[in-house]
Amino acid sequence: MGFAALSRTMKNPDLSTKAGRKAYRHEMRMIAVRPRRYGLWLLTGGFLLVMLPSSLGINSLFGLWPPFLGGAMMLAAAPLLIMGVVLRRRYLAQREGAQAVIRRIRE
pTM here? Predict the structure, then answer.
């Protein structure tokens, strides 16, 4: 990505206006949507499977113990959620780095 494209996409957020804050929140919310979404779905499904035997009295699901399946789903969710955090932090660092480059060039 060249400098011109970088400067167009990485503008300083205008946090003094309501519309600017809304656009910045939307931009931050759209980073790593899929890993976070799938991680939350797996975490929720795993929690429900852990709670299944005590609430409904179901002791076997596809020949396996539901709390075991729930634990496996929660373990599968953890890397996705961590990846979402890492991608967001990397994006913010890249954004701040681009702003520093733009400031240096303008000076």
Answer: 0.70
